[in-house]
Amino acid sequence: MRIDVLTIFPAYLDALDLSLVGKARRDGLLDLRVHDLRDWTTDRHRTVDDTPFGGGAGMVMRPDIWGKALDDVLATESLPAPAGATPAGGLDHPASAAAGGLDHPAPRRVLLVPTPSGDRFTQAVAEDLAGADQLVLACGRYEGIDARVAEHYGASPSVEVREVSLGDYVLNGGEVAALVVVEAVARLLPGVLGNPDSLVEESHGAAGLLEYPVYTKPPVWAGLEVPEVLTSGHHGKVARWRRDQALVRTARRRPDMVAALDPHQLDRADRVV
Ligand code: SAM
């Protein structure tokens, strides 16, 4: 997968050299590039913002600078082969249709615009984005990016635009959101996690639950013992205990998730907590 992050603070993204994402980049599993938006300015002060039409506080990022930058990074000809080589965006996606269907599917390019007024970024969104060929993250600053940028690229048959929010609070810029999106998506790419089984029972996965509590050595710490079943060696009992704990934890902390469970996500031994 190719990921491009556009920002006026490239150093903010230095953390993407670390840990599993950094390793994925070095191993060639992820082609991640961070660009300084100011490289597309032409004035002496490298200006990317201006006062808002209609008045009011703060500054707004200019669409013409964003347009030049996005045109350049979205024009990337060659993209890494998609994981699993699924058709771009599905058969009914305009990008596939524009390229003539399954034989030569167009790359699926997604322009992500972090904004507190966007759709909530969830694990399901991360899973969907992990199937894209190119993600472009446009990190806003000040009062945000001129609204015509999302409108313009949203009208393009070759780009999907997603305005996403991390949650109901306001950050100073989109860089933290970009870090979150890149990490959540990258760990879903084949080969990025050392043990892909780690993904199976995780919170917000296919089970629709939070994960059960986890423990390691020592067996007694601060007077607290590890639940006996976990040292019993009885795999069936361990699995049942974990399932029960996941249900209890989810019911207590996120009753909305329990209410949203499909009947097929429950097994016959599940009890209402
Ligand atoms: N004036 C905007 C509003 O009230 O909706 C907030 C702009 S915020 C100060 C500057 C930038 O931070 C946004 O353009 C966006 O890139 C990022 N940002 C702030 N909060 C965010 C959130 N909850 N989720 C995603 N991005 C966020």
TrEMBL record:
Subcellular location: Cytoplasm
Binding site for S-adenosyl-L-methionine: 140, 166-171
Domain of life: Bacteria
Coiled coil: none
Molecular function per GO: acyltransferase activity, transferring groups other than amino-acyl groups; tRNA (guanine(37)-N1)-methyltransferase activity
Self-association and partners: Homodimer.
Family assignment from sequence similarity: Belongs to the RNA methyltransferase TrmD family.
Name of protein: tRNA (guanine-N(1)-)-methyltransferase
Species whose genome carries this gene: Georgenia yuyongxinii
Lineage start: Bacteria, Bacillati, Actinomycetota, Actinomycetes, Micrococcales
Chain's gene name: trmD
Full protein stretch here: 1 to 273 of 494
